[in-house]
Amino acid sequence: xxxxxxxxxxxxxxxxxxxxxxxxxxxxxxxxxxxxxxxxxxxxxxxxxxxxxxxxxxxxxxxxxxxxxxxxxxxxxxxxxxxxxxxxxxxxxxxxxxxxxxxxxxxxxxxxxxxxxxxxxxxxxxxxxxxxxxxxxxxxxxxxxxxxxxxxxxxxxxxxxxx
Amino acid sequence: xxxxxxxxxxxxxxxxxxxxxxxxxxxxxxxxxxxxxxxxxxxxxxxxxxxxxxxxxxxxxxxxxxxxxxxxxxxxxxxxxxxxxxxxxxxxxxxxxxxxxxxxxxxxxxxxxxxxxxxxxxxxxxxxxxxxxxxxxxxxxxxxxxxxxxxxxxxxxxxxxxxxxxxxxxxxxxxxxxxxxxxxxxxxxxxxxxxxxxxxxxxxxxxxxxxxxxxxxxxxxxxxxxxxxxxxxxxxxxxxxxxxxxxxxxxxxxxxxxxxxxxxxxxxxxxxxxxxxxxxxxxxxxxxxxxxxxxxxxxxxxxxxxxxxxxxxxxxxxxxxxxxxxxxxxxxxxxxxxxxxxxxxxxxxxxxxxxxxxxxxxxxxxxxxxxxxxxxxxxxxxxxxxxxxxxxxxxxxxxxxxxxxxxxxxxxxxxxxxxxxxxxxxxxxxxxxxxxxxxxxxxxxx
Lengths: 163, 446
What we know:
heterodimer, A: alpha+beta, 9 strands, B: 446 residues, mainly beta, Neuraminidase, globular
């Protein structure tokens, strides 16, 4: 286990399609921020994609937090039900932070957020074998804006099909 | 490669005279010392020889331009306009007419000579105290012609050291992350350049996301985070050979790596189950040790220069703060108590200060505090900036700064900046692309 793998000049590796969620449709920036945020948690649907009908792919967080909101729990219960119905599907939980934090802390925060989602899926009967956690910190925002609404969309954990 | 470059002969010519000029390094650039950098003189035969090899019309003038630029950017010196110089470079190097240099208000004068000898570049230079009419220092170097830029940096370091009493930081390199493309899909590559931005070179191709490169003390190895195969792990890269390896065999993300001051260990965070703890791995025997054990996020570790202590970032109090502990993880003490959040602590190579990023009321600051947390001083405020890295003499910090985008999400940029410990002399360091996560090497010619 201590043996290190040596990759000699492995840099010439295929470009990986890192983020599946980046193709989210972008609408005009909403004028009614109130309607899209509760506290500073995003409640809109602009960036949300669906794993199946009625199964949103992502949950959102407050600044510096990894606590799941009531809406997030509802989303994750729908994901858990869908995963139980599709036992051959595995998922990657991609945790993200907004740009208003230091890079290294944000990597840890993204990991903590994705794990909050993972823990919840597990309490609804999804085996940890089927879940991989991957943090992107602040590296892959969906909204490039420098405003509270954009940041709220970026503080997220996105469930992505792994196979 | 660096070792080869370091085959640089340094011949000391006797030094006489006591320094009468002194530059107070702690005061910033309020009153930079006026000095004259006379172009290094060169005979016609040598000039032609170097023109052929280096494609530079006058290598003597090029080297003195490097010296002039270094001294100016330090903020401590004010190199005077060459047009005002009265004495020819070759004569000045033999015996300056001090009245002439005094007339243009130069307090110090640098002269020198370049020769092409046996396919080598031979440079000699002298530093003169104009007011005292005395030679302060004389040195000569012989090296391969391709090293001409480094000769300029070494001369700058010698002059800086003679006039300030502290080691310079010009013969150094910066490793950083080059950034391109839209903010939502940045392409990031490791890049390396000389401290003044010259000789920029990319070390990775941008196929995978790379972050936070840091030099080892010998500046030949780099540890960094790579998302190779979508698995964020700490890697070790040999700059010369391009060989890379994963550091350790962790079942999850490792990040925030740095070398220990003796270069034998890598210290980093490992994230698992929503918790991040600090670990070290010995590079010789591959033994992994867990240093912190707490359900919080513990990250951004940095050793004290004697290796006995570690400063790190933790949110165990509820929010990001800076802590110091012994190198075995015991005796953990919180040291940041001001308003706001604190991150990215880095121990100064002098040992006396810790530089950090602070987030308070929507602004980001780069600051320093003593190692017990007292004497907090904020050096610069901006919309977004973070990740300070120390110059090897502990006098300058390099960091990166990002701009706010407009309402359409446009106008994003990331650039490298430096600032003196005094809080003066803030400068952008030009890079061919956007840039972030800079790390300063040690002095290469030490």
